[in-house]
Fold:
Amino acid sequence: MQVAVVGGTGRIGRQLCDALGRAGHHARRLSRKLGVDVHTGAGLDAALDGADAVVDVTNVHSDLTAEVVEYFTTSTRTLLAAERRAGVGHHVLLSVLGVDHGRYVPHYAGKRAQERLVAVRGVPWTVVRAAQLHDFPAMLAQRVERDGVAPVPPLLLQPLAAEDLAAVLADVATGRPLHAMIEVAGPRTEDLVDLARRTLQARGHELRLVPTWRGVFGLELSGEAMLPGDHALLTEMTFDQWLAASGAVAAGDGGAR
Ligand SMILES: NC(=O)c1ccc[n+]([C@@H]2O[C@H](COP(=O)([O-])OP(=O)(O)OC[C@H]3O[C@@H](n4cnc5c(N)ncnc54)[C@H](OP(=O)(O)O)[C@@H]3O)[C@@H](O)[C@H]2O)c1
Structure:
């Protein structure tokens, strides 16, 4: 199958293209640096010509809700319109597990806007809501660090490996559209503060972590808000295995959200 991966040069997109290739499919990498912009539509029609499926793994790095929502709304509308013109048979959106609870998280507002559009714009679809990658806790701590201190939420999460997520996305993209949301998460429930501390320690990065719900994530994400439901697909690689394999590597498995 011909699968266009929008965001194919990103952390998840790169792994997805590799997974599609391994499974015998042809992955087309789309990104601004490669001449395709889903926000403006530049280069999109040519890039989608003959594509069977499209996976949207784009990202926007902003902490302003209005900016994030505008970016994801415009780019999703533009992408879906181009897919209709090209006769694409399956649109797959990568979203984030727990976005319904994160009312005040700008990125989650953008993902909810994308999910709503995907369900009504006439291209057969599947939304994959994924848990955070193993690397997320340490990345978050480093992002919010001030003078050696990082306020981080004591969030329960069930993180997964980028390779495992990519394999699931490749399967979904080359399968039939489900017209539904599915959840995918790692094998174990973990605590974000513990994971951040252990990852930073393995990398020799000294940082004092202060657990708090008054930082980037509020109390509405406490308890089981970010955990998968009973029907979620659970992947294999645990945090311990991931850390043993890549913990000392600063840019391991990646993941900002
Ligand atoms: N990382 C996680 O833990 C996690 C978990 C669940 C879900 N997700 C979701 O996965 C998505 C991707 O995350 P990521 O960490 O892989 O992102 P990333 O590394 O920042 O990559 C983003 C990709 O999107 C491309 N892109 C951005 N704007 C574009 C545009 N207007 N037109 C075409 N391409 C564009 C970028 O390439 P150019 O800069 O060249 O355009 C890049 O290839 C996010 O939406 C996130 O919500 C992430």
Q: What stands out?
A: The pocket of NAP is lined by residues 6-13, 30-33, 36-39, 57-59, 75, 94, 96, 111, 130, 132-133, 136, 254-257 (CB under 6 Å).
